[in-house]
Design a protein that fits this description.
single chain, mainly beta, Immunoglobulin-like, 3 domains, flat
Length: 591
């Protein structure tokens, strides 16, 4: 029997978990791996069920919709607490748990496992004792994210319990992009023919169906896989004031912001996603090349950067099927180098990929080979020539390596601003010499910022003087004393948000926190804190402002926490390596 293999000391802990449901639960001393247990077990979650064959669909959201998915996550601790309440309402369960008798506890767990499961599934160190998983199938999705397969079982026996994880081909490497905890994410007793919807939110996963574009189109889609180029400000616009201060938004994105609130520069390693249509390549449009130049410094003063070619190697991967030595069908991948290469007078050119790897010059020989219609057209370290505004240019070349000019404007397209689809003709801001219906190249302005934040909390001042020169934090005050809180929330180019919090003991004092706490962009002061040229924030308060509900005691202890969140993104996620924080404490006492 399963429970007989669980150590008694683990069984003894379970009543404490039920009667004192404080998550996370303490982890016991290590035990040897108990090995696989028979299963599976029924669960309380009435999810879609399965038997013989099944159909499923993964939902890959566009960059503009992806942020809403995170709001749909269930409250795991809420489910566990609901089961605790159910248990507490059943005297036949609680009476057995309270006996502390190992045999009685095992019996009640066995008899009511469907109630205990939502609790156990949130305690990872219990999983080896109650759950196991065997891989049954590897299934490949179609372009719409649909997949199906057959699993055979005895219809008179237990129905299969299904767990899914997802891998995607990211830069030519199969990468796990969805693998939730098994215990809480298994589909118990699945009913034949039902659908499973798997929400994949990893920004590295492409979101569209990958259909081939007809004709001759170069659709410049995103920086990274998550930031639409249509959501990068291309002109000198200040937008709304930020804490009463204007800011030039050129080259900034509204990624992770409300639509149109362009505050985010780019940093770290960047890549640009382009989709080339089915009418390409041709002899007239055979190759492409990205170049850049720095047009303004970090403070947006003019820069005189010259054009430089981005010439890092770029490969495009495709998958194929083969029969392995075990006689089963498997998937594998190969990569084809797009460039750089020299063709005639053209230097550092990249091949426009055909819509199928079976076409020349790839000429794949493997079975069922195909690749994504999205192409990582360029990849580079964004440090380049330092922080500032850059212009990136995409040029086209013919089969002889000569640069093509007088390209129809409609050939260059960008995503729809509101819906991403359909693609739209690139506005004039994105075209080089785009007058008269023709242009010479595609271009876009991108703000680069790889600077880190700095956070520091200063000692409390009383009437303008530090009353305690040591690090111990005791601050004496007198009647009528003016206290000064001060901290430095600094980013060289003001691309950061700050949050400053003062916590008094274990108190919840809304008046005090309303006076002491502040948040905003480091571009200006906030909540009465004045900001100087060095980005040092100061605010004068009375001892009553700080003591608040502790005024009658005349003293209190405080913690100060400052966090700076850098705004830079790589197009997929925030660059948290540029963040900074500081922690300090002080205690107020009368003189």
């Amino acid at each position: 029997m399963l429970l007989e293999r669980i150590p008694d000391r683990i069984i003894k802990i379970i009543p404490d978990i039920i009667f004192n449901p404080e998550l996370p639960f303490p982890i016991p001393d290590p035990e040897p791996d108990p090995g696989p247990f028979p299963g599976p077990f029924p669960g309380p979650d009435p999810r879609p069920n399965f038997s013989g064959s099944f159909r499923s669909k993964s939902i890959l959201e566009s960059p503009e919709r992806r942020s809403s998915i995170g709001m749909e996550k269930r409250s795991l601790s809420g489910e566990a607490m609901a089961s605790v309440k159910t248990i507490m309402a059943k005297e036949e369960i609680t009476s057995m748990l309270m006996t502390k008798d190992i045999g009685a506890i095992k019996n009640v767990i066995s008899n009511y496992f469907d109630i205990f499961h939502p609790i156990f599934c949130h305690i990872s160190w219990l999983w080896p004792y109650f759950y196991r998983c065997d891989e049954l199938k590897v299934v490949y999705t179609d372009n719409d994210g649909n997949f199906e397969t057959d699993i055979y079982y005895n219809i008179f026996g237990d129905h299969p319990d299904l767990y899914f994880w997802v891998e995607a081909l990211v830069n030519g490497v199969w990468t796990t992009v969805y693998k939730p905890g098994r215990a809480c994410n298994t589909y118990w007793n699945y009913v034949c023919g039902s659908f499973v919807n798997i929400r994949v939110t990893d920004p590295r996963v492409v979101w569209e169906c990958g259909e081939v574009l007809p004709g001759q189109i170069v659709w410049v889609k995103t920086i990274g896989h998550g930031t639409s180029v249509a959501h990068i400000q291309q002109d000198n616009s200040t937008g709304n004031l930020i804490q009463g201060v204007s800011m030039n938004r050129i080259g900034l994105s509204d990624k992770f912001e409300s639509v149109g609130n362009f505050r985010r520069p780019f940093g770290k390693n960047l890549y640009f996603i382009v989709q080339f249509s089915s009418g390409l390549p041709t002899n007239g449009y055979k190759y492409y090349r990205w170049s850049y130049r720095k047009t303004r410094n970090a403070d947006l003063s003019p820069a005189s950067g010259s054009w430089k070619v981005v010439n890092n190697p770029i490969y495009k991967s495709y998958t194929y099927e083969y029969i392995g030595g075990d006689g089963n069908l498997h998937f594998d991948a190969k990569a084809f180098k797009l460039g750089p290469g020299d063709v005639g007078s053209g230097k550092d050119l990249y091949l426009i990929p055909p819509d199928s790897p079976y076409e020349s010059p790839v000429n794949a020989v493997e079975s069922n080979a195909h690749w994504d219609q999205n192409t990582i057209s360029v990849s580079f370290d964004s440090t380049l020539d330092g922080d500032g505004l850059y212009e990136f240019k995409l040029e086209l070349f013919n089969n002889s390596g000569n640069k093509v000019v007088n390209i129809p404007n409609a050939m260059f397209q960008i995503p729809h601003y509101n819906s991403f689809y359909p693609s739209v003709n690139a506005p004039a801001d994105y075209l080089v010499n785009g007058g008269g219906g023709n242009c010479d190249a595609f271009t876009m302005n991108v703000r680069i910022d790889n600077s880190a934040c700095q956070a520091e909390i200063y000692k409390m001042k009383v009437d303008g003087v530090e009353t305690n020169p040591t690090c111990c934090g005791f601050v004496k005050y007198g009647p009528g004393s003016v206290l000064e809180l001060a901290f430095r929330a600094y980013h060289p180019n003001n691309f950061a948000d700050f949050s400053f919090t003062v916590q008094k003991g274990t108190c919840s004092d809304l008046v005090q926190t309303g006076a002491t706490n502040a948040s905003g962009m480091v571009i200006a002061g906030a909540n009465g804190y004045a900001r100087n040229f060095a980005s040092i924030y100061t605010k004068s308060l009375t001892f009553a402002d700080l003591l608040g509900i502790c005024t009658s005691e005349g003293k209190a202890a405080f913690a100060e926490y400052l966090y700076l969140n850098a705004l830079s993104t790589d197009g997929n996620s925030e660059l948290n390596a540029f963040d900074a924080s500081a922690l300090a404490a002080f205690a107020l006492e009368p003189m």
